[in-house]
Structure prediction request, 199 residues.
Amino acid sequence: MIFDINYKFINMKKILSFCLMIIISLVLINCKSSKKLSEVTKAEEITLPLSDAKFKTDKDFFRAVQTGISPDLSTSKKIALQNAKTELASGVQTTIKAVTDNYTNQRTVSDKQEFQNKFEELSRQVTNQQLSDVRIIGEKSFKESDGRYSYWVAIEMPKEILLQEVEKQITKDEKLKLDFDKYMYEKILDKEMEKFINK
Prediction:
């Protein structure tokens, strides 16, 4: 009987010790997780130039931010601008492809594949034309510790201008014109552009 009581007492002690260890572990984990990543890794957080929301693509504008580095300031500007235009064109093409796919799935188009291919080719041409007229909305220059220059640039292209130019080119192609509903296309494009706001 005494052995039985001692055995239960010892088991109870073990259970209480185990529960106490779990509680202490949870408290320690919570304390550690409240530390910032930079404190834990000893890494220094940096803020990139032109990283505010106003330099990101939204429902009305396609935007891109890029940098260029060179021993010559004007060369660093050219590199940054070229990089930004490449990024902008890529973003526009990805969006246009998604819109065209959605559009052809929601409409009865005589030859979907041909329409998509022609439309994407046309939008690529329009984008390339518009890239020469992109607007610079922000820029910053830095002299690096090694003497080179780094130049940051933010550019934008209005969605509306792109849409107008696409429509203008479509009217020149009889087959595309038959299958194109501007109102529906614009609605799908607006929906696709709104996704950028939540990114």
